[in-house]
Amino acid sequence: MNTFEHSRSFGMNVPGDAQSLSLIRLLMTHLAETAGFAEEDIGKIEIAVDEACTNVIEHAYAAISPKPSIRLEVESNAEQLRVDIVDQGQSFDYNSYIPPKFPDHWNEGHKRGVGLYLIRKCMDDSSYTRLPDRSNRLRLIKKLSKPGDSN
After folding, report:
1. Torsions phi, psi of 16, nearest 5?
2. Under a CB-based contact definition with an 8 Å cutoff, are residues 74 and 11 in contact?
């Protein structure tokens, strides 16, 4: 296991389309592995970032053509991995989101609508900010478990 002793940062713009999702998943898996996350947490990080980027593509960029890029800014240190997902799309009220009730959600025939629920379940912290330049930033944080932690 290679863990970061000092803070490391990485930034990248990816096309704002579904074809970029596999690259984003590979990138997040690699960065989480390099940071020393356990396999289960790597999967959670991958799911959360994939869901967040999918939401940008399907919702924030729904009425925009051509689709702008998505900016990924990742910082890792000995304590946590922080992923900022920055987009140029339509804003939304992240704090008013009400998670679905299970199993009613599925029983009522809904097949979608669980992205934000998954993001919040997979990550230790998440926040949304509408930035002064009118871009949106979703910040996701996953804490690195230490031996003996119960997370």
Report:
1. -85, 55
2. yes
